[in-house]
Design goal:
Layout: E1 14-21, E2 28-35, H1 40-51, E3 59-62, E4 68-70, E5 82-83, H2 89-92, E6 97-102, E7 108-118, E8 128-133, H3 143-155, H4 162-169, H5 181-188
Parallel strand pairs: 4-5
Antiparallel strand pairs: 1-2, 1-7, 2-8, 3-4, 3-6, 6-7
Amino acid sequence: MATKVQRIKAPTAILQLHIELRGTKPKVWRRVLVPDTITLLRLHLVIQAAFGWGHSHLHEFIAGDGERYGTPNPMYDAPGSITSENTRLTTALRKATLNYVYDFGDYWEHRIKVEKTLAPIPELVLPFCAGGACAAPPEDCGGVPGYAEFVQAMANPDDPEHDNLAEWIGTDTWDPAAFDTIEVNDRLAEIKL
């Protein structure tokens, strides 16, 4: 039996993306380099790695014209939703920005903006995180309002929720300003584009 070989189109350019988690203070964001041939499904995996999340909830991309892209799920998809599996980022980007929503309960909304288009760099392994700021919220902490309460409780050892939250995340301390590019790039290196 012959196996079907999927051809991967070589990138003609690198897109420098600014991905910002909306509503957090201070702002949580990442600057990521991806090939211009990346599909939205692969971009979802890049965002998950860049923010340290576990790809355990539904997601969707929303283009400026309202078109929605996601992983097909008949229980949750709105009529007209398009699969993100084979849709390229460049196809969905009719304007310079795209929205990405992860976890419909917590509703983590991100704004994705193409900052620059760069010539291919053969020695650069993509995806690559070129910068960012602040720690991403832990999954399932209750969205932006829950994250604000989480940060406040973790900053105060006398808060009645501090010990429970510390046990939940596995540490007594939480630095909302922490960001480690090397750690993010280690996670990104596991993604096969």
